[in-house]
Amino acid sequence: MATILIVDDLKSTTDAVAQIVSANAHNPLTAASAEEAFALFKESDVDLVITDMKLPNKSGLDLLRQVREIDPMVPVIVMTAFGTVKNAVDAMKWGAFDYLTKPVSMVELEVKLDKALQQRSLLLNNQDLQLENNYLREEVHQQFSEIIGQSQEMQEVYSLVKRVAEARSPVLILGESGTGKELIAHAIHTNSDRSDKPFVKINCAALAEGILESELFGHEKGAFTNAIRRKPGRFEIAGAGTLFLDEIGEIAPSVQVKLLRVLQEKEFERVGGTETLSMRARIIAATNLDLEQQIASKQFREDLYYRLNVVSIQLPPLRRREEDIPILIAHFIAKYASELGKKIKAMSPAALKCLCNYTWPGNIRELENTIERAIVLTRNDQIDCEDLPIHIQQKNDLASDDSVDEEDLTKNMEDHEKKLIFKALLETRGNISKAAAKLNIKRTTLRYKMEKYDFLRYKFE
Questions:
Q1: pLDDT value at position 412?
Q2: Which residues of the chain register pLDDT less than 50?
Q3: Which of 20, 305, 389, 448 has its CA 20 to 30 A from that of 131?
């Protein structure tokens, strides 16, 4: 049960909102002024503030600033009318979680209340991320120091890695690009009895067929043009350690045949050589392709697949590890702030919300690149929404405006469209071209809808 502070000088409003809060099993506190609200906030453990912008003496914006100074982790939802545009803009600049237009819809209030409290929980979990990381690394997963994550999906991966590490069988790691397959391969090696021996990796997709064969098996002097001396291959270099074959699904059929023989016979020859060498390394392979589909299309050998797939580990995409996103963000902020020599204290709640709402098709690699970019670009001591790529901001804009079910479908759709347009105009300060781009509609279409909803009379500044 959360404690929610409701602020409005109209008792009818605070009573109505308090009734909805109570109906959702939360504890409401009410205040009629910013001063009274701030006093309650300081003496109570408040999880969410819902305040009118127009209050006697001090405004809702003043209260928002005071709340943010004491505890930036507490989300604030402001209530405003369409006519008070400047106040709404200022509230969003100062980090208001969201806004409600009067008269307040009960269903909309419930939806945004739930979202705000989820955000509060997320921020609280994020507050001591560095301590949590240290605990996880030192107490729970001492042998997985390079891997960040505490979600249930990753707990299952850790458990499987520990069991797999004790065996000597080949391992096939499956997962989308950017999910950390190499880190898992290295963790298997580190936790095995081969940890004091070489961990050798090769990206099979990065090399042409002839070069890949030479890199894997080595070559003799004179085996081909420019082969001026004998060169050991990765199998030879790995010795009794671990050989990690990344992007195994990309290798050519001729190399697949030779790799199959190595796995079956545990022996190989260098290119251009006759001496048979023993293969002692443990093989870990990884791919982001669907190998069964590759087999069906005759692009990957079925017998090689079964040789490699003795044990498989499926890595979850980042969109299924939502609770790990704040932890990864904190890790990358600490990493790149140090590397780039910038004093970044934190990430704003609005920016964190933006990143958590994004689906991350590029997974952890995309998140890491996004944080590095933000640290390079930011001029402040914290990362804000404007420091993030525009496509991530746009995805968040669309995700944050959920429509609600009502009997009048047409009215509901118009209300939803009206709020999307209004929010876009607020965030672009009335720049029609930028707002149209944010909404992914034509400028003329936006102009028409602004006339339809009587928005042309407002000054979005």
A1: 60
A2: 128, 130-142, 401-407
A3: 389
SS3 245: strand
Token pair listed for 1: 């049960």
The structure tokens listed for 2 are 């959360």
Does one domain contain both 196 and 291?
A: yes
Question: Which pLDDT does position 440 carry in this prediction?
Answer: 86
Please compute, for residue 54, the number of CA atoms within 13 A of its CA located in the half-sphere on the CB side: 11
Amino acid at 347: M
Q: Kindly state whether residue 141 falls inside one of the protein's structural domains.
A: no
**Regarding beta strands 199-203 and 346-347, do their DSSP bridges make them parallel or antiparallel, or are they unpaired?**
unpaired
pLDDT at 127: 52
Q: How far apart are CA 416 and CA 435, in angstroms?
A: 16
Does residue 205 sit in the same domain as residue 303?
yes
Cβ within 8 Å of residue 89, ≥6 positions away: 426, 429, 460, 461
Q: Is 103 exposed, middle or buried (0-12, 13-18, 19+ CB in 10 A)?
A: exposed
Instruction: Say whether the peptide bond before residue 103 is cis (omega within 30 degrees of 0).
Output: yes
Task: Say yes or no: 275 and 215 in one domain.
Answer: yes
Statement: the pTM of the whole predicted model exceeds 0.70 = no
The pair of structure tokens assigned to 116 is 């705000």
Rg (CA), the chain: 29
Distance CA 158, CA 303 (A): 28
What is the structure's pLDDT at 135?
Answer: 39
Q: Which two tokens stand for residue 332?
A: 């990358």
Q: Are residues 279 and 386 in the same domain?
A: no
For 404-432, the pLDDT digits (tens) are 444 455 556 677 788 788 888 878 888 88
Residue 191, SS3? Answer: coil
> For position 369, what pLDDT does the model report?
95
Quote the tokens at residue 196.
């004091």
* In a shared domain, residues 383 and 424: no
Same domain, 119 and 26: yes
Give the per-residue pLDDT at 177: 94
CA–CA separation, 197 and 186 (whole Å): 12
Which residue range(s) make up the domain with 447? 409-452
Burial class (CB in 10 A: 0-12, 13-18, 19+), 274: exposed
Return the pLDDT at 405.
44
Max intra-chain CA distance, the chain: 92
3 state SS of 143: coil
- Among 273, 296, 315, the domain-final residue is 315
The CATH number of residue 63's host domain is 3.40.50.2300
Mapping DSSP to helix (H, G, I), strand (E, B) and coil, where does residue 301 land? coil
Token pair 């029609």 is at which residue? 432
Q: Is residue 190 part of a domain?
A: yes
